[in-house]
Design brief:
Layout (H helix, E strand, L loop, with lengths): L2 H11 L8 H14 L10 E3 L6 H9 L3 E4 L2 H9 L7 E3 L11
Parallel strand pairs: 1-2, 2-3
Length: 102
Amino acid sequence: MTSSLLHAIADQYGTPVYVLDEVELVRAVAEFRQAFSDFPSSVHLAYPYKANSLESLCRHLHALGMWAEVSSGMELDLAVRFGVEPQHIIYNGLYFRQFKIA
């Protein structure tokens, strides 16, 4: 993405603004997955919702096979709302309490 394009986006939408490059995102996920392709046991890649829980980003990452890594009840609710299967959610909270996923 060129700096002139980023400036045009900032001028149109103001700042701060999230700009996601879908081609780069897909490439990075594929490269990350490839790094573990020869690992002796199965590896599941998970995206931390703490980094950015923007719905379109999370849904796209899940469509690419990424699991959800959440650390709060709010993030867990988002993952469920975004359609992540419960067995594909990793909960890394400060404490554990029983969550009922309807």
